[in-house]
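Sample 1 of the test manifest.
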Amino acid sequence: MSQRPLELILARNLMSALSTPAFLVDEGGLLVFYNEAAGILLGKRFEELGTVGPQEWGAMFGPFDESGEPIPYDELPLVQAVRNGRPAHAEFTVRSADGHSHAVEASAFPILTAHGSQGAIAVFWPSQANSNGAKPA
Amino acid sequence: MKVKLWGTRGSIPSPGPETIRYGGNTSCVGVTLSDGSLLALDAGTGIRSLGLAHGEEPARLHILLTHLHLDHIQGLVFFAPAFRPQTEIVIWGPASPEASLRDRIARYISAPLSPVEVRELPCDVSFRHCPETEWEIGPARIRAASVAHRGPTLGYRIDDGDSSLAYIPDHEPALGADLERLDEEWISGFALARDASLLIHDGQYADAEYPEHVGWGHSALSHSLAFARRTGAERTVLFHHDPCHTDDFLDGLDAEAREAWVAGGGDPAAIELGAEHAEYELPAQRSTPAATV
């Protein structure tokens, strides 16, 4: 198993200390970590899930647009950030392991280093349009 | 490969009667490769003694800088080979988006901090950013990787034959991380130190001191031991001693380190605190452990 870039290691360490749900993808757009707060949102800890591919992730958690249609993985802010090297923002719904849906806003920014893009971080916030929290799916 | 510690202290030189045995010079390690090539790891004040010890030789040498904090470059303007026209010196170090390695070092080797400028050094000196990929110096394969410290900082691994040296003198891998639980790929510096014949690693703080220094870029004793254990280094030398630590204090820390190492199932001879002028010979065959000369 190869060593992760230091910037990703430090990002993970920082995210581990945050109480805001946060997600980390590598330079290929693969989800490699999410923190405890994100685990609470999703109803599943990262340690239980591990690194998963886009299709498996989508089947479990979505996300979904306002009409309930799955949003392609490539269109997620995290993936946009890592591929375009620009911050990205979106609103969507994620489905937690217990079947509840959560409307969230996601802000993602790329991790740019002297060696190029190493990945991206996304932070989730309850959607202002639906700040009452969870609702049944 | 032969390794000699010329400066084991961190932060600032700390000469005096209370630091005679472990030494007061700042970070510098001399490495003699199997073909006789000489490398200097960092250029703290210890490099002055290294330069004097080698007389008119060698004609060419490499200095590998982990980073540019003063305790790792302060000896450069007192390094005798730098003042010989017949000497070629290649200085390797971390890249930075801010300025070239040469320009960053020139902030120290220039007025008013220095009586000479880089361009005035009589030797043939060149500056190179460490590549992302492994490269060769003489018979050795060199690898550099960014590690957790303040500012752009590298650790090094030097493989020569079957022996390997990992040098990570300024390192806080436990910052926001649990070294006992994390997967290897998520531990700063892990790939550099994995199964090294000899690991020279940051050991600046006692555990009781660390809470006051979280985020300063250095390790507590228990962090250093956990890192050494996880990486499987055959022998570990703790390095970059805090300038306030006297010989007596370091003796106590050394005993504590060995005790903890044994409690974890390790060989007490495989862990020690680095002392100035200590020498190690790394065997060509991995079946023989690193020996103190």
